[in-house]
């Protein structure tokens, strides 16, 4: 195989035993470097771990790698455990972090770990998982980090070198294999020069249909249209209903493929798949997290067939999943960042824009941004597209479970672990002081609340260190015997409530007597948890359980069909599946904690009752 300059450079470093960090544009071919590590390990009988930030990407990598490596590939994501003793094991970063802290001996047989999309260390919600994984990485493991862009890559490499005392090589590729050509739709006209855009008192609305028509006229299909809202994606797809991007032969081909895939994934009678068919036959589709995972996979396969010409999708379509197109359109250049809507980061813009231009097919990729000068300043558009990508920064916020695991290992010396963090490496003295103060506050709270006694973890502490993210509320329930008193329905209801996050203005329907009693107990305990955290100045506060999905959960555990339980909630079908799968993962974590055999048996039964049909993630992978 003929490698590009940056690929060969990385491979040479790998062959000489170095850990490597690669920063290269989306679509440049970073996966080829990961495949070299995998093949090298297999040749010498060594083992390798491949981590990905989201389960969908883990699943896709499992399918992709299976083509070349067959039964040598396994996957472990919390939802799925297939061939877990394989020499090449794909897992989410959370699973790896848990292994590093709880069972480091299980990693002795692995010589390499590949961190895909390592810039996720900057993610406010989950970045700490990457940081902890790198901090506590066993010394015998080499690292391959892959990222679309890390402007402060030298700082990042220096941090890893400083804590692991071994040289890390850096490989940077700035040049895209397929260059991008930028266009702007403003006042319903398309221009390729930002300087020609002027703010006008009369703003001609930017029409989606007009832009798609223009892209088609410029031979710009297939096209990925990025939208920052699920309903908006569906609305825009429906708006194109009167268009047909396929000739008769293509139409017959795409319908044949769609129907065979629907047959394979048992979607033939699913309402959402049936309604999607009318768009598919015109070469149009939408894709977002609220859809059935199996239907999303069908859409992805249709897109890779090149028969799907326009897809309206949210930004997760840009994350690692190999779905290049000729053109990319941005519905707007603003998105919701956790707490509020603001203008896009340059790094996020290129994560999505990088899907334009298919290597080996297109001479250039086309990126269209819809601009309303009354909503965003032209200087901001210029900054987003032509500015320097933002640095990757630590988001360390050590969880209670991590602190308990560290305390078990190091006792009071756990605070000496903080200087290993990227946060410490990047921070000023006062920021370091604040971080240590927060860690100390969490440890003091855990001591006061009977997680630690006489310098050892109590049974409550042993329980809490197994349930990352939901430690305090679940441990309080466990200590009070609430878990023991619940049946399978109650256990499932509690697990779903622990993970569920309602959308704004989402309603909760009336609860059964048993569910209401459980909610009352949770509310009382959460109030005491929140009060204790506030007293210690701990932030962010632990998550409150939400019982919005209770009726659907009860119906599902009692054996109702999926279509029936959707009538019991205003939550999107894809979200219902996601929350049920997350709840099953929580139940598995509780089952691994030190609990009674009776409770263990009830949890096993609850998992069995919940993990069926569309909820069974393994089933989707096996059938796919």
Walk me through what this model shows:
The chain has 26 helices and 19 strands. It is of the alpha/beta class. The protein has three domains: 168 residues, Rossmann fold, CATH 3.40.50; 207 residues, P-loop containing nucleotide triphosphate hydrolases (Rossmann fold, 3-Layer(aba) Sandwich); 158 residues, Sec63 N-terminal domain-like fold (Orthogonal Bundle), CATH 1.10.3380.30. Strands 4-3-5-2-6-7-1-8 form an eight-stranded mixed beta sheet, with helices on both faces. Strands 10-9-17-14-11-13-12 form a seven-stranded mixed beta sheet, with helices on both faces. A two-stranded antiparallel sheet has the order 15-16. Helix 9 runs antiparallel to helix 11 and helix 12 crosses helix 13. The longest helix has 23 residues. The mean pLDDT is 93.
CATH 4th-level superfamily of the largest domain: P-loop containing nucleotide triphosphate hydrolases
The tally of helices reads: 26
CATH topology of the largest domain: Rossmann fold
The major β-sheet equals: 8 strands, mixed
Rounded to an integer, what's the Rg over CA atoms? 25 Å
- Write down the oligomeric state: single chain
Query: What is the second-level CATH architecture of the largest domain?
Result: 3-Layer(aba) Sandwich
Q: What top-tier CATH class of the largest domain fits best?
A: Alpha Beta
Q: Would you count the extended β strands for me?
A: 19
- Uncertain residue segments: none
* Number of separate domains: 3
What share of residues is helical? 40-55%
Instruction: Calculate the terminal CA-CA distance, rounded to whole Å.
Output: 29 Å
Structural class based on helices, strands and sheet pairing = alpha/beta
β content, as a range?
5-15%
Strand order of the largest sheet: 4-3-5-2-6-7-1-8
Spatial shape: globular
Give average pLDDT, whole number: 93
């Amino acid at each position: 195989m003929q490698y590009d300059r940056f690929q060969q450079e990385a491979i040479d470093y790998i062959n000489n035993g170095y850990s490597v960090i690669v920063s290269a544009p989306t679509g440049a071919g970073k996966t080829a470097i990961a495949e070299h590590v995998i093949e090298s390990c297999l040749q010498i009988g060594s083992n390798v771990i491949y981590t990905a930030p989201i389960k969908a990407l883990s699943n896709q990598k499992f399918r992709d790698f299976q083509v070349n490596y067959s039964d040598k590939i396994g996957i472990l994501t919390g939802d799925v455990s297939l061939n877990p003793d394989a020499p090449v094991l794909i897992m989410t970063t959370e699973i790896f972090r848990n292994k590093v802290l709880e069972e480091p001996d299980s990693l002795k047989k692995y010589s390499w770990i590949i961190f895909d999309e390592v810039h996720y260390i900057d993610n406010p919600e989950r970045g700490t998982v990457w940081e902890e994984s790198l901090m506590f990485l066993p010394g015998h493991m080499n690292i391959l980090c892959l990222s679309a862009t890390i402007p402060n890559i030298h700082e990042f490499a220096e941090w890893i070198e400083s804590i692991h005392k071994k040289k890390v090589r850096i490989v940077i590729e700035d040049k895209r294999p397929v260059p991008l050509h930028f266009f702007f739709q403003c006042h319903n006209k398309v221009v390729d020069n930002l300087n020609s855009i002027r703010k006008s008192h009369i703003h001609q609305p930017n029409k989606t249909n007009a832009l798609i028509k223009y892209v088609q006229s410029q031979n710009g299909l297939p096209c990925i249209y990025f939208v920052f809202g699920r309903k908006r994606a569906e609305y825009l797809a429906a708006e194109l209903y009167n268009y047909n991007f396929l000739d008769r032969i293509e139409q017959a081909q795409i319908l044949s493929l769609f129907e065979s895939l629907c047959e394979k994934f048992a979607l033939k009678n699913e309402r959402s798949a049936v309604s999607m068919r009318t768009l598919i036959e015109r070469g149009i589709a939408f894709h977002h997290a609220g859809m059935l995972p199996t239907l999303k996979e069908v859409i992805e396969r249709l897109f890779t067939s090149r028969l799907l010409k326009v897809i309206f999708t949210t930004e997760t379509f840009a994350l690692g999943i190999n779905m290049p197109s000729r053109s990319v359109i941005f519905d707007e250049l603003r998105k919701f960042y956790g707490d509020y809507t603001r203008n896009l980061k340059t790094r996020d813009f290129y994560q999505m824009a990088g899907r334009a231009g298919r290597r080996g097919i297109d001479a250039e990729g086309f990126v269209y941004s819809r601009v309303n000068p009354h909503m965003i300043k032209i200087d901001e558009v210029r900054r987003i597209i032509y500015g320097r990508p933002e640095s990757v920064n630590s988001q360390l916020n050590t969880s209670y479970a991590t602190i308990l695991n560290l305390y078990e290992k190091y006792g009071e010396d756990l605070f000496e672990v903080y200087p290993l963090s990227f946060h410490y490496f990047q921070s000023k003295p006062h920021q370091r002081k604040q971080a240590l103060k927060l860690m100390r506050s969490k440890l003091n709270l855990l001591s006061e609340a009977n997680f630690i006694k006489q310098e050892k973890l109590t049974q409550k502490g042993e329980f809490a260190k197994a349930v990352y993210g939901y430690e305090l509320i679940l441990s309080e329930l466990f200590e009070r015997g609430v878990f023991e008193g619940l049946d399978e329905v109650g256990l499932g209801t509690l697990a779903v409530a622990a993970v569920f996050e309602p959308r704004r203005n989402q309603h909760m329907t009336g609860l059964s007597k048993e569910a209401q009693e459980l909610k009352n107990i949770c509310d009382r305990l959460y109030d005491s948890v929140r009060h204790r955290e506030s007293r210690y100045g701990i932030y962010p506060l632990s998550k409150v359980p939400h019982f919005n999905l209770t009726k659907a959960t009860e119906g599902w555990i009692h054996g109702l069909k999926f279509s029936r339980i959707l009538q019991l909630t205003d939550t999107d079908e894809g979200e219902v599946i996601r929350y049920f799968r997350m709840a099953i993962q929580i139940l598995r974590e509780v089952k691994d904690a030190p609990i009674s055999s009776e409770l263990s048996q009830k949890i096993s039964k609850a998992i069995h009752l919940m993990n069926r049909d569309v909820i069974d993630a393994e089933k989707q992978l096996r059938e796919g």
